[in-house]
Amino acid sequence: MAEGLKSGLSVNGGREFCIGGSFSKISYITIDGFECRLASNYGIVFHDVSLDSAGITVQNSYIHDTGDGDYGYHNQLMFAEYMYGHAYGTKFLNNKVGGCYGHNCIQIHGDTGNPLIQGNECYNWRHSCIDVKYSAGALVDQNVVHDGLGDDIDEAAFYIENASGGPTSDITWTHNVAYGTILGVAFQCQNAGAPVTCYMYNNTVYSSTLRQGTYGGGSVSFTVVNNILDTPTPRTGGGYVTWDYNDNVQASPIGGHDLSSVNPQYVTPGTDFHLTANSPVIDRGVDVGLPYNGSAPDMGAYEYGPVPAFTYSPSNPVTGSPVSFDGSSSTCSASPCSYSWTDDADHSQLGTGVTMSFTFQDPGTKYVRLTITDAQSRSASVEHNVIVSQP
Prior knowledge:
Layout: E1 19-22, E2 27-32, E3 35-37, E4 44-47, E5 54-59, E6 62-66, E7 77-80, E8 91-93, E9 96-100, E10 106-109, E11 116-118, E12 121-123, E13 128-133, E14 138-141, E15 144-146, E16 156-163, E17 169-174, E18 177-179, E19 185-192, E20 196-201, E21 204-206, E22 212-217, E23 221-225, E24 228-230, E25 235-237, E26 240-244, E27 247-248, E28 259-260, E29 266-268, E30 272-275, E31 311-313, E32 322-326, E33 338-343, E34 348-352, E35 355-359, E36 364-373, E37 379-388
Parallel strand pairs: 1-4, 2-5, 3-6, 4-7, 5-8, 6-9, 7-10, 8-11, 9-12, 10-13, 11-14, 12-15, 13-16, 14-17, 15-18, 16-19, 17-20, 18-21, 19-22, 20-23, 21-24, 22-25, 23-26, 24-27, 27-28
Antiparallel strand pairs: 29-30, 31-32, 32-35, 33-34, 33-36, 36-37
């Protein structure tokens, strides 16, 4: 580990970064459960990667108090390819990144292969906390961003930019929270010379210091639906093709179905933005293709009650080989929560737990259902058809 001061402004013989690589092919690497602190330039970084790289994942890691000033392009958890974007499939999952004294905390630059930034906590940054550039199909989901350093009046919690020469870029922001002392903007969709499409669904913004909750810069396509924008100025800039079904808590309605001056009734305002049972924003959203309970989606980042979701692999399972099921993308705020896996065809039990593995002995379509029950005895389920073939 590098050594230095917590400020990051004086690093005593510190390394430039803790772990990573550059100027080469870097593929199918997973960094899991690593702590990085007090490095001088970067934290965990893969930059100037070769075009044939793929499959970099950083998860469950803690990167903090890194960087010695906002110069260069020093980002603390970073993937970067500077040839205007190819498909790499980068994933940053369930990391804690803070005390970012360089440029950005979390950065994916030049990945057109549906990069995923999910489940991270990001805090104390200078420029942007979670930043995506020159990328396509990006999903930024279930992240919590709070409290910038206050060094930059334009600091952004969530940011995407595309510049001249870049690929057609798009991003979807879902189920994220931005709160605390943030000077600039919570969500910025920025065209700096090339097209950008932004979808902002079911996020929560809670800050009285923001100059703007959202900002559309340049010629962009910006869709904003089902959000709680608990900030004085929810919207500035342009390019908004759809704005509706949002709770503009401190401002007037903008869309035809917006709420205004409606208290969402958080569990603990300022720290826990889950909704209480009597929240007026429950079932007040509109279906945008995300899982939800009740007659309609709730507004904000957290759906009231459990919301099950799962994936399985391999995608084309065969008899006699195990199939892995993963329900970790589900939402269940009232813990502890139980997870039950069944087959709708005969109601047989396949397994329990957030993840499980099952081996099918007969080919055909299996109607696999995940049911989640929370600590308040609320249940919800989702079913997927799993087609099993002969090997």
